Amino acid sequence: MIPGRPPTGTAVLDVRGILGRSGPVKAVSIESAGYLMCEQPPELTDPRTRLARDRTHIALFRTQLALDRTTLAWIRTTLTMASFGFGMVAFFRSREIESPNPESRLLHHDAIRFGTALILLGLVTTVLAGVSHWLALRRMRRGELPILREWPLSVTVALLFAVIGLVALWVAWIR
What we know:
By secondary structure, the protein is mainly alpha-helical. Helix content is about 65%, strand content about 5%. It contains four helices and three strands, in the order ββαβααα. Strands 1-2-3 form a three-stranded antiparallel β-sheet. The radius of gyration is 31 Å and the shape is elongated. The model is unreliable at about 10-40 (pLDDT under 50).
């Protein structure tokens, strides 16, 4: 046996993070023992390993709950958008019924367009939030991290909402 070298039939593995130990561990080769066997029995591993594993499971659970809360917030937001769209249409319809003149008719038709756009934006956003939630949960169940996109749903919806509002203002201004 040469000092500093493992004896024949053994292998030195670097198992940082595995079994709660750090540094090289001498292991019997697969040929001689039929399976990989560490010098130290598994029951002598660091007790913090189980605690770390439990904390990881709790962290995943908390992340899943945070995803659920985010999806519920999106549902509330999209319901508000759709309700605002329906409310706009109803308000301007009542204005048209009270005083049926060309201006109120024009406002009613513009309100129908803008309200329909809000309702559609709400529906599309609800579907996108559901798909995003489902994909994130699927990745987490496979042991992968959720993806942070370059254009998150919140930024995309905010930009679409701003574009719809600017188009509505532009249409109202030119008439």
